[in-house]
User: Which sequence fits this backbone?
């Protein structure tokens, strides 16, 4: 998609891609909403262990949550750098965003592996099924974001990410922040507010 | 980028962009909303005939008691594929054909917001439809009913590929619907001609807009449910496993949370179509335009709060029953308001009963009957008598055939001259109409009685002692009549292409913008983007600025691209990989998708 589209007349004055992207985020809200609702409705209903209380590692996940939050901060700085035309800072902050995102994925890889080692797989019980599908779906979104931002980073190295491409970065940023916000909800619902077995 | 003005379809230095508009390649790579609309229409009509054929086989089997024409297993596949095909492969994409062709013209745009995404939607829909129907070749067509209740669909009770074809096929189709919804929402919000305010939008565009908003919210829900189902079948997850503490009703909640809004996805576009036809053939503006728009919005919202009226038989308890019952009765109000608006539009008008108008009037009558039987089973005690009987089958067909299909047929006769430049034959059209109208009532009205007498739906045969034979035979005769009427319609299409009267810009004397240009419209739609000054631009003096026949300066038209097709193929390969459980195929499909998305993003393509 070319940036000359920006010059075209639009009814609202807003960029058309941005409007389409907001509707996409709306559908993503329903996607994660359904996954989270399912997790909650099945919480405490597993007939076998391991249970969340036994297995979730809140300290480690707090660190990975912090890492993801920092990536959103870096994303904000990257966008302002692009708008300013500051190539050095664009590269710096995009690299930081990609790096933090990758770190989050590494944490998730470690977490999944250790759960499997402790006997929780996707087919073990309701907790395993709902947990892995919910957090796995989120992880997949992070992975797509990392690939997307890496593409922008490469464009920046090729001097193809000037201020005229700010909208491309802004939309990628919208996606990234959304994925981040979803994680905050997941972290709160799955990790911080754990409910015991329902009688 | 490139030169600001170029001839049609030429883009300098494009890789995936194809120059030629002619030939098969021109159609495969097209990004023209009008061509994509025609592709949608032709494909969906083909699937409509296929779904109709399946219905005929079902009716032939039920024509006599203890019939042995079709076995139980084939019967299960036929009714499952009939429902799935009509909902996802016929009605939705037939509406999509009109979204594509008509919306940009009605709002004064040169194309949709994202022409390549639009092509992508079509190709994903086509491949998804073929994927779903290819199951017949393996004798493994889906057989769990169109709402595929858990745990009938679990690997334990449905070990074959049938359910996998269904669950994966619907996910492919969901991708197409979602991509199209983002596209049309952005188009309607942002691509309107100057002066085309929201409250000047033609009602068809309004209803389509609301439909797309519902798609955006509803399809993720069914996608998640289908992922749960597939994971249960492929990876042994426990979402619908009772032994592991899971609840099979989770499926029903998720399915109907999608399924009820889906009813409005099917009916709102048809409501939009008759809202264009009725004023045109009554020579009167639509009565209460804002009320129609707002009640459409209200339907779109309340439609989310009624899903469990499909689940009264599961024993949800008095509180849930009372809630879902009363909200379901509530939603009949905005629907009823529209019906009164349509009747008031005709009241005192100079009514001309041309074929589109006949279908539109029939829509009002038949949809009202379907609505009334719908309110009947909004009451749980009544519903308990009617659920899973032919009464419900009668209801859904009055709503979806009497409603959606009659509305779409009205739209086909109405916009045909705009799309193809020739009128359909009125005499054949009237024959078609009366045969459909009579055939539809002969087929579906007896089903009310058959259902009240207790015949369950989805049984492949019944005993002679039940006294249901005569009415079933009547219903089958009606179905044959319906099938025959479609032959007249197809003949009319062919006849029109040879001998049809050449259409002027505005053969019906309609009020909206799409009739302000030649029939068929030029490739660039509007020679100059008009300025709209009225809600009824062609019925108002100075309602729209002049649109010259020849563009005063060259108009740039986007070229084609083959990357949308390649991306769609990547998605198909991924899902085939999931079907046959081949990791390599699935990975290969993803790679094709990723590569084509990158090529797509970086190919030079003028918007
Ligand atoms: Cu419903």
Assistant:
């Amino acid at each position: 998609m070319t940036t000359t589209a920006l010059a075209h007349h639009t009814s609202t004055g807003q960029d058309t891609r941005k409007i389409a992207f907001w509707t996409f985020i709306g559908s993503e809200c329903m996607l994660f909403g359904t996954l989270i609702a399912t997790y909650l409705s099945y919480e405490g209903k597993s007939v076998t262990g391991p249970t969340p209380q036994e297995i979730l590692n809140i300290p480690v996940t707090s660190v990975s949550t912090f890492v993801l939050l920092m990536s959103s901060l870096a994303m904000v700085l990257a966008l302002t750098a692009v708008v300013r035309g500051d190539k050095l800072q664009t590269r710096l902050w995009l690299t930081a965003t990609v790096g933090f995102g990758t770190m989050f994925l590494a944490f998730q890889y470690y977490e999944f592996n250790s759960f499997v080692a402790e006997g929780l797989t996707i087919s073990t019980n309701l907790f395993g099924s709902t947990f892995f599908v919910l957090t796995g779906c989120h992880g997949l979104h992070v992975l797509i974001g990392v690939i997307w931002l890496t593409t922008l980073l490469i464009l920046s190295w090729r001097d193809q990410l000037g201020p005229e491409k700010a909208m491309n970065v802004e939309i990628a940023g919208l996606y990234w922040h959304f994925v981040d916000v979803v994680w905050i909800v997941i972290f709160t619902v799955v990790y911080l507010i754990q409910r015991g077995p329902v009688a | 980028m490139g030169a600001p003005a170029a001839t049609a379809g030429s883009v300098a230095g494009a890789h995936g962009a194809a120059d030629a508009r002619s030939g098969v390649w021109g159609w495969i790579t097209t990004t023209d909303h009008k061509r994509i609309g025609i592709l949608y229409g032709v494909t969906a009509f083909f699937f409509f005939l296929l779904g109709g054929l399946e219905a005929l086989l079902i009716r032939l089997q039920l024509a006599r008691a203890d019939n042995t024409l079709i076995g139980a297993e084939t019967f299960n596949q036929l009714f499952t594929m009939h429902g799935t095909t009509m909902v996802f492969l016929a009605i939705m994409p037939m509406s999509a054909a009109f979204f594509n062709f008509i919306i940009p013209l009605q709002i004064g745009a040169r194309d949709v917001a994202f022409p390549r995404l639009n092509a992508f939607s079509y190709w994903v829909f086509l491949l998804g439809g073929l994927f779903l129907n290819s199951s017949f070749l393996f004798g493994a067509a889906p057989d769990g009913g169109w709402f595929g209740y858990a745990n009938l669909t679990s690997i334990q009770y449905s070990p074959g590929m049938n359910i996998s074809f269904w669950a994966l096929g619907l996910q492919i189709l969901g991708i197409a619907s979602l991509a199209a919804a983002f596209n049309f929402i952005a188009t309607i919000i942002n691509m309107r001609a100057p002066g085309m305010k929201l409250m000047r939008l033609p009602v068809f565009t309004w209803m389509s807009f609301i439909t797309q908003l519902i798609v955006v919210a509803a399809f993720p829900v069914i996608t998640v449910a289908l992922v749960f189902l597939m994971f249960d079948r492929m990876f042994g997850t426990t979402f619908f496993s009772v032994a592991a503490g899971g609840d099979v009703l989770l499926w029903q909640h998720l399915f109907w949370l999608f399924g009820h809004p889906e009813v409005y996805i099917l009916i709102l576009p048809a409501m939009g179509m008759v809202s264009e036809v009725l004023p045109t053939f009554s020579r009167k503006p639509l009565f209460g335009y804002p009320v129609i728009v707002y009640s459409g919005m209200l339907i779109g919202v309340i439609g989310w709060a009624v899903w469990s009226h499909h689940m009264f038989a599961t024993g949800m308890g008095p509180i849930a029953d009372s809630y879902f019952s009363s909200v379901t009765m509530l939603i009949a109000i905005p629907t009823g308001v529209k019906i009164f608006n349509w009747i008031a539009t005709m009241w005192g008008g100079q009514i001309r009963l041309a074929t589109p108008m006949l279908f539109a009037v029939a829509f009002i009558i038949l949809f009202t009957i379907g609505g009334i039987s719908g309110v009947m089973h909004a009451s749980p005690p009544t519903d308990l008598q009617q659920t899973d009987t032919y009464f419900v089958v009668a209801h859904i067909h009055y709503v979806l055939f009497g409603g959606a299909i009659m509305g779409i047929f009205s739209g086909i006769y109405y916009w045909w001259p705009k799309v193809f430049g020739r009128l359909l034959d009125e005499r054949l059209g009237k024959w078609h109409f009366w045969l459909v109208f009579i055939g539809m009532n002969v087929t579906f009205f007896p089903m009310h009685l058959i259902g009240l007498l207790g015949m369950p739906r989805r049984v492949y045969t019944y005993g002679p002692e039940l006294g249901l034979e005569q009415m079933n035979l009547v219903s089958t005769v009606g179905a044959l009549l319906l099938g025959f009427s479609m032959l007249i319609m197809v003949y009319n299409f062919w006849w029109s292409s040879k001998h049809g009267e050449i259409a002027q810009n505005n053969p019906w004397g309609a009020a909206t913008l799409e009739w302000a240009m030649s029939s068929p419209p030029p490739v660039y739609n509007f020679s100059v983007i008009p300025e709209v000054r009225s809600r009824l631009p062609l019925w108002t003096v100075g309602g729209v600025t002049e649109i010259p026949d020849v563009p005063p300066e060259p108009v740039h038209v986007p070229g084609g691209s083959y990357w949308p097709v390649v991306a769609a193929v990547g998605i198909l390969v991924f899902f085939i990989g999931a079907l046959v459980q081949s990791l390599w195929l699935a990975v290969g499909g993803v790679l094709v998708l990723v590569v084509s998305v990158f090529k797509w993003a970086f190919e030079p393509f003028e918007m």
Summary: Residues 126-157 of chain A form the longest helix (32 residues). Chain A touches chain B through 41 residues (CB under 8 Å). The helical segments of chain A are 16-42, 52-55, 58-84, 87-117, 126-157, 166-192.
